[in-house]
Structures are given as C-alpha cells and as structure tokens.
Amino acid sequence: MFETLIDFDRELLLAVNGSDSLFLDRMVRMLTNGLTWIPLYLSLFYMVMKNNDNFRRLLYVLLGAGLCILIAGTLNDEIVKPLVARWRPTHDPQIGTLVDIVDGYRGGKYGFFSSHAANTMSIAVYFIWMVRSRRLSIALVIWSLLNCWTRMYLGVHFPGDIMVGLLWGVAVGTGVYFLYGRITRGMYTPRNLNPDQYTPGCYRRLDCNWPVGVFVLTLVFVFIKACII
To answer: Which keywords annotate this record (predicted)?
Structure first.
C-alpha cells in the first residue's frame, strides 16, 4: 500500500513538472524566489503596524509571525528533512533523469516535507485568524498555493511533500495564533467598531487592502518581467 502511494506520488509529480515554455520557466523561477515577496511582507507589516497602537501587542504579532517560520520551516529543514531523508524528485534515483530541470536548479538532497508549503501556509493561516478579512484570506491562500505549484513545476518537491507541508502549516499557524491570543488576552479593550469599516479581527478594511493590492501588483510585475527577459 505504501509503495503504491509512493509510485502514485511520483507519477503525479511527473504530470505537473515543467513544460516546454521558457516564459513559464522564467515566471516560476521568480515566483519561487523569496525576494519576490518582500513587498508583500512589508505590506503585511504596514497593516499590522497601522492597526496595533499598543507596542507590546505589535511586538507579539511580529513574534508570532517569526515563530510560524521557525516552527513550520526552520525545524523542518534542520530536523525533519535529514531524519526522514526522502530524496527530492531531482535527486531521486528512480525518476531523477525524467524530471524537467529549470536553469539547472535541483535544490538540496532531501525534500520531505516542503518548507515553502509549510512556511507560506503557516503565515497565511496566522493572519487569516488574526485579521479575519475574506479578501486578504483568499489572497494569502492563493499566494501559498502558488508557491506550492512552483515547487512541483521545478521538480524539487513531490505532491506528498507539498500536502504534508500544507497540513503542518495550517497546524502551526493555528497553534501560534491561539498562543498569541492567550498571551495578549488582557491587552485588548472592547470596542464598538463599524463592521463596514473594520474586520471581526478589529483591522481596518482599507488597511487590509494593501497586502491584497501588493500581491496582485507583484503578480503583474512577474508576468511582465517574464515576458520581456
């Protein structure tokens, strides 16, 4: 049964890995690069700063985001991947020669589970719980899934690596949020806010549009740059 799942995982990876399009190759290489998303991170920071006038609460929000990255990705890279030691598709002895390699990029030796999936989904879920804006939630989930797709396109993660990473990211993001809520419980003062202007998480809706807008503009920028390079 386990071998059947492994074989299916390999077949599914080969079905979605790579393409004959140089445009897609260029676009995916940019989308999977963490530097591409710095404007998104800065816009999230701006949103948090604008909606937390209590310095301690602001600090805890940022520490929570850092904790998501630490638990979801760093511990995985340092402990889980070497311990499980599952080959990345690009290094897999059985299908490595069949994987479409983009610009010579193969990643490290081991790929279980995907830190890209875990990191992005943990951040997405953390802010989904924190802010509770439908528009922002949709944008962050799409951002995470887009990153996951790039990892399979590049052949550096099996779909199984991605699924486990996403599940771990959901668990970490949720756990860190509720830890944050427990620590900061006494810092909030009940306020009657206009639901047309504020989310259930007490974030101003106009401020929540900044990360959404930056996400869309980043996609447009990547698309245009991939066209002209």
So the answer is: Membrane, Transmembrane, Transmembrane helix
Rg (alpha carbons) of the chain, rounded to whole number? 19
Residues 22, 80: Cα–Cα separation, whole Å: 34
- Between helix 159-183 and helix 55-69 the angle, nearest 10°, is 160
Tell me how far apart the alpha carbons of residues 73 and 83 are, in angstroms, rounded to a whole number.
14
Structural tokens at position 15: 């079905």
Closest CA to 37 of 186, 166, 221, 225: 221
H/E stretch holding 123 reads helix 115-131
17-60 residue pLDDT tens: 988 899 999 999 999 999 999 999 999 999 999 998 888 889 99
CA atoms of 191 and 81, how far apart (whole Å): 46
pLDDT in tens, 78-104: 899 999 999 999 999 988 889 999 988
- Compute the distance between CA of residue 225 and CA of residue 222 in angstroms, rounded to an integer: 5
- pTM, entire model: 0.93
DSSP-derived letter for residue 101 is -
Cis peptide before 113 (omega within 30 of 0): yes
